[in-house]
Amino acid sequence: MSYTITEECTCCDACVSECPNDAISEGDDIYTIDAEKCTECVGFFATAQCADVCPVDCCIPNPDHSEDEASLVEKAKKLHPEKDFSGDIPSRFSA
Amino acid sequence: MAKKKTSKDIDKKSRDVSKFREDILDKYAKGKYSKIPADEQAGRSLMPPGTAKSRSFAFVGSEIPVFHSDKCVACMECIIECPDVALHARATTAEEMERTLDKIKDKEVRERLKAHFGKTTKLWNVYEKKGKTPAMFSIWVDPDKCKGCAACVAVCGGHEALSMTSRDEAMVGDYRKEMDFLSTLPETPKEFINERLFVDMFLRPDVRTYEGGAGSCSGCGEITGLNMAMTATAAKYGKNFVIVAATGCNSVYSSTYPYSIFDVPWTNSLFENAAPTALGVRLRLDQTGKKDTKVWAVGGDGAMFDIGFQSLSRVLTSQRDINILVLDTQAYSNTGGQTSGATYTGQNAKMSAHGKAISGKMEDRKELGLIAMMHPDVFVAQVSPGYINHYLRAVSEAIDYPGPSVIIAYSACMPEHGISDDAAYDRAKAAVISRAFPLYTYDPRKGDSMKERLDLKGNPSVNEDWHKDKNTGEVYDFVWFASGEGRFAKQFKNGKPSETLLQSQENRVKNWRLLKEFAGLSK
């Protein structure tokens, strides 16, 4: 699953700099998350950083884009070929 | 024999705002100009700071905004985009709200005031969910500052938390009473100001360096940008900064006697020398141990792209901590809209008026940002008030940068662009979307190569030539941008763009591709 931003978004910009995957950008009306780049912070953090920082709780798991933990780890590895993912991989699923 | 006045005495008097108010401002407000004694401060070109706070524009506009608290989401955009700082926001606990309202004896008035407070997801639901005391959010309109441009309504857009209504004397009276009430309401407590949100800095009382009263046009997009830059500076350094203004709209609307708009030291010398004057100020501050004081030089595109270009270039090689803000309206706005180096191809401007011989400006726009980047280690950014976070972030980074920085800000200009009073925000967004004015930051701290330093983040569809609407497929190219502004109206015949406009579009996409190449994004 990737995260998505609901229309409650106030375009405050707080999530953009928190995202380890550079997946968030300003859309036409509200901010959007690129599902191809979102790993739900798997590989980096134990919680989704955008959801943590959002002042209106509008960053939520995307029900239309379901992925399991293993595929999210693969996604993280593909997006960050330079990063060493050996050892314990931080993930919201194991938190 | 009377003691001779020293320059120290005069300096002291120049800072005495209450005396100035009594002697000058009150008489100005009543139109009793002939009763004003000769002002020896004016003879030395001195004015106390922030005197425009008492200036009233109550009857300039025919309309005034009404706030609908049930629809507000506390995004802060109206507060930031208002060119006259006429809108004020507060976060208040329910308990404090009741306590302050209790002092109002008239039930009808109390109900009207209470209707200003609303529960937003940001300050109520989320705080409650986290087990913290939530806050009510309210917005207030100062009828003496509001010029009725309706920019706030346009910015609020689909939320519809603001609408315009016709203004009359009774209404101005009611709004003034609401402002009196606001002055009894405590400032927003720290726990309701999210430090991770750039926009929330506008809730802080300590960052207000401009509180309205400028002589700028109704809806002016330029002063909004100026206020954003000064607020972002104050958010980091308090009021420990000075402004050197180049002659232009910005010097006129901010210092026409007896009204000065800023609460910080401000000076104006000439059209062409703001940057070197700022360098002189910088050197003197450094010499006297005031290294922490920040220095801004502010000017339009006429001052910085053209007339003061050489002296700007000199300052950019100084390696001194100086920040330059270029309020780019793509014309000499103050003198009536002559062509500048920043004017777009095909733009109908004076000195290149559209007619038989030429169809608007025939040369291409000069890109001051690219030229500034080629000076040794200068921080450069191109920003737009339509992109608030990018703007505030870029300014924050620029003022922290230890050397010279140049911020080029898109500035919507009603008379010279041929747009409506409420259009500044939409046009500032459209300029970015259409590649007329791409956003970027160029930070020498990021590395030694162009692609490490140059960041195009913030522009839509960075990998494409043009941004398209996902649903309709409409292409947001430069012709689309031009079709929304009177300055390009003569480039359309039966809805079709002229050869000149298509050339202008070609020039814009070439600039965009060049930026992409520098940023390492070319395919």
Question: Can you characterise this structure?
Answer:
- The complex is a heterodimer of chains A (95) and B (523).
- Chain A is an alpha+beta fold.
- In chain A, 17% of the residues lie in helices and 13% in strands.
- In chain A, the strands form two sheets. Chain A has a two-stranded antiparallel sheet. Chain A has a two-stranded antiparallel ribbon with strand order 2-3.
- The radius of gyration of chain A is 13 Å and the shape is elongated.
- The two termini of chain A are 16 Å apart.
- By secondary structure, chain B is of the alpha/beta class.
- Chain B has an eight-stranded mixed beta sheet, with helices on both faces.
- In chain B, strand 16 and strand 17 form a beta hairpin.
- In chain B, helix 10 (221-237) packs across helix 16 (388-400).
- The relative contact order of chain B is 0.09.
- Number of E-type strands of chain A: 4
| Inertia-based shape of chain A | elongated
Q: Summarize the amount of helix of chain B as a percent range.
A: 25-40%
One letter per element, helices H and strands E, the order of chain A comes to EEEHEH
Largest sheet of chain A: 2 strands, antiparallel
Quote the distance from N terminus to C terminus of chain A. 16 Å
The tally of strands of chain B reads 17
Which spans of chain B of ≥5 residues are poorly predicted at pLDDT below 50? none
Radius of gyration of chain B equals 24 Å
Task: Please give a handful of descriptors for the protein shown.
heterodimer, A: 95 residues, two-stranded antiparallel sheet, 2 helices, 17% helix, B: 523 residues, alpha/beta, three-stranded antiparallel sheet, globular
